[in-house]
Design goal:
With 570 residues, the chain is an alpha+beta fold. The chain contains 17 helices and 11 strands. The chain is 50% helix and 12% strand. Helix 2 packs across helix 3, helix 6 packs antiparallel against helix 7 and helix 6 packs antiparallel against helix 8. The two termini are 42 Å apart.
Length: 570
Amino acid sequence: MHIRPLHTPAPQPTGAEAVPDSRDLNLWRADPELARLAALYLPAPLLAHLAPHLERLGGLAGGRLDELAGIADRNPPVLHPRNRRGQDDQHIDYHPAYREMERLAFGEFGLAALSHRGGVLGWPEPMPPAAKYLITYLFVQAEFGLCCPVSMTDSLTRTLRKFGAPELVARYLPALTSQDLDALHQGAMFMTEQGAGSDIAATSVLAAERPDGSWSLTGDKWFCSNADAGLAMVLARREGGPEGLKGVSLFLLPRMLPDGTPNRYRIVRLKDKLGTRSMASGEVRLEGATAWLVGDPGAGFKQMADMVNNSRLSNGVRAAGLMRRAMTEALFVAHRRRAFGKRLVEMPLMQRQLAKMLLPMEQARSMVFQTAEALRRADVGEEGAYALLRILTPLIKFRACRDARKVTGDAMEVRGGCGYIEEWPDARLLRDAHLGSIWEGTSNIVALDVLRAAAREGSLPVLEWHLRGLLGNGAALPEALPLLGRTLALAERAQEEPALARQAASALYHLTSAVALAWEGGHAGLERRGELARLVLRHRLLPRDPLEAGMGEAGMGEELLALLPDPGAG
């Protein structure tokens, strides 16, 4: 007599059924933790208003937008320097998929406009940074390349409004914030030269003043993303001006002059890039191009730094979004792929690897919301908020962008051989992830900027006050208090020993993110973030024995599994 086992293992799928595919997964619904975080950081009426838009964007990001992103990635822009008659008639051809993504980003969701005016998505006022970055965080999970022009348009608008002459602002603000693509002027930043990357004092492009008050720009710019943008902020050296940074000024360069004629500059060629292939990055030759001075002529770099820092924050947000998409894919696969009679997620070693990916992903998005809130407070002039923003921005840019490179690579491995195939999103996520830690300042430059913020803005005492405030308002993380003084002491020492800059920046990031996670974990529905905070301290700041079995995760079992929910369960 045959006795059937009480628990018959599920049959192993074969063929196509054995290959999990998350296509058309709604990425907003797949991430309920994000909705709970948004409720913590956004005003309730605004979040309620945005709910249907986030639902729609989540569906697009896991479906049609993701499909468009793949098509645009495989069909990069093409530069045409002349027309068929041999006339100079320069233009860049973009694939229709890219144009459709522009319509969604700039048009429907108004990502470059919603911080600057009311009316976007039906909301009567400009939205706070947390709302902009929440929508960006979702959008970038499908398409990274286009988010660069979106960010630069938003950042250029901010810098122009802050430092530009009233007549320049009046002339160009409506086009910069338009949701009509025919009227829209996208933004760009032409800063880098062959001999002047991060070393802005070496800028050699020359600016000569004209009698009518405009300026003539001459020289080459080496990395110009969104190369055919309607407007670009450009750094150039004033003819006859002083040496060094004092001689470098900020200029607004239009693609078309007010009389409708093309400005005098050429896109020499487009770059063949590892990632962000959908978006046109090129080399530009300025041939007496007309531009207008922005702000104080002796403070060009300081003013451009406002745009750069905004772009750095956007880089951090995008890195966080890439990590979330990579994590979603890895979790989706792990909960469905079966091997040796089990789902991958049931295997202790896979649980440990997923947890190692989850931690930096969650750290990054807590830092996104913390930095967005600091930006909101700085913009309304709250005391100490700018100093806090000034250090949080390079911290998230430095660490989150580096973490994204590893998380996207590890997520690819969870999918196995399919992850290495360009038909799946993993390869594009990995290629795009490498951008963040290079553009807008490499890791060394940005780590040193953390120290610069500490020295020039007095950011360390403000950060300490902020963290103590979070700890005193529900962040159940007593282990963090003794680490706070040591971390700040390391940052102080690094100002005298710059070789410690990266170590200090990482320590500040890990401590800040752990405290933020613990504070979030003190709110209903977000309790698991308290456990994540303790894992950050344990694995990023506290001393460990490398020979200790399990490194603190062994034996967590169901507790660890609870941190790894199935994104497709709902």
